[in-house]
Amino acid sequence: MQRIATEHLEIHPAQVLRTELPRVESGILSQLPDRENLKKPLRRVRGRELPTEPINLEDLGEIPNCYKITLSGEFQKEQADTEASIAQLPLGQSVKTKPEQNWVRMNERIRNTVLHYNQYKENNRTLDYLFRIGYNFCL
């Protein structure tokens, strides 16, 4: 179990126990400590393997651009574009509509991923699920 906890840091100790304890023979199960005391060494092993949390901004390193753009920033840009388009109407200028195709495709990809959440969960691919969701927000 400790090997699995170190090789797969994305799997929590409780999940490791859920998947591995049914495979243990009943004679050995009776000799094992309770679940909480089984989780403690797994947590310790994971703690040694996980990277340390940054103390200051320099420790954090470079933040990818897709994480620097917030949805509120996107909404502010969209609001500014809309206000500029409205200001052009009384002047008789044609208002250029913003292409929505990218947003529609992104929405469809996210919806499709969310609809298949249970399949990701059943196959222990939660990290894959989160990656796909995050990837679509970074586009």
Query: What is the molecular shape?
Result: elongated
Number of helices: 10
* Low-confidence spans: none
- In total, the number of strands is 0
Taking all Cα atoms into account, the compactness measure Rg is: 24 Å
Distance between the termini: 38 Å
Mean pLDDT: 77
Helical percentage: 55-70%
Element order: H for helix, E for strand:
HHHHHHHHHH
Strand content: under 5%
Helix-strand makeup class: mainly alpha
In this structure, how is the largest beta sheet organized? none
Description:
The structure is a single chain. The chain is mostly helical and 139 residues long. The model has no long low-confidence stretch (mean pLDDT 77). The relative contact order is 0.08. The protein is 67% helix and 0% strand.
